[in-house]
Design goal:
three-stranded antiparallel beta sheet; 9 helices; 6 strands; alpha+beta; elongated
Length: 187
């Protein structure tokens, strides 16, 4: 692989590593190149970010490298965080949230059994919005992750506890559960 291709992959890995960051050793192992070559790639990326009009930079902390925003742009990031989020959740995310709210703790597979379709993206959306969180792992094969609603879920919907969720009718099937949840979340 050429140096520019390696640099592009390293940049993608830095981005994908998020807040955890990535070490030279990890990059070296993943890219199958020497530590010295990784250090050269990181130096080139740092130079690119510093000498072109870019909004990000590479930060190093305890041998871990992160992509981060430039401090001189902080006023704009502050405005972004202060701006209320006006985007609406998709129908799939609302369905998934309702299923989790009423059947927690629940695994992704169990959510998909209720919805009848893959639920990876809605689950990720709900995690990103801090409405659900991982609360452990189910015992058994594969030890799947268990999801439950978060404190932010309660705050977002003006609830003090899960007991305030509207009760489900006694003989309700899974499709009715989704329709009932739609009524609750569309208030």
């Amino acid at each position: 692989m050429e140096i520019n291709d390696l640099k592009a992959v390293a940049e993608g890995l830095l981005f994908a590593s998020g807040d955890e960051g990535i070490t030279v050793k990890q990059l070296s192992r993943i890219l199958e190149i020497t530590d010295k070559t990784v250090e050269h790639l990181l130096d080139e990326l740092k130079y690119d970010y510093e000498n072109t009009n870019r909004g990000i930079m590479i930060m190093q902390s305890n041998q871990v490298f992160h992509l981060t925003t430039k401090p001189e742009h902080s006023v704009y990031f502050k405005k972004l965080l202060e701006t209320p989020q006006t985007t609406r959740m998709s129908q799939a995310a609302l369905e998934t949230l309702a299923i989790i709210a009423y059947q927690q703790p629940i695994t992704r597979t169990e959510i998909e059994e209720v919805r009848g379709v893959k639920s990876d993206r809605p689950v990720q959306t709900l995690i990103a919005r801090s409405l659900i969180e991982e609360v452990g792992r189910r015992e058994g094969a594969g030890r799947p992750i268990l999801f439950a609603t978060s404190k932010d879920f309660l705050t977002y919907f003006g609830l003090t506890s899960l007991e305030e969720l509207p009760p489900l009718p006694e003989n309700m099937d899974e499709e009715d559960l989704v329709q009932e949840a739609d009524l609750f979340f569309n208030n």
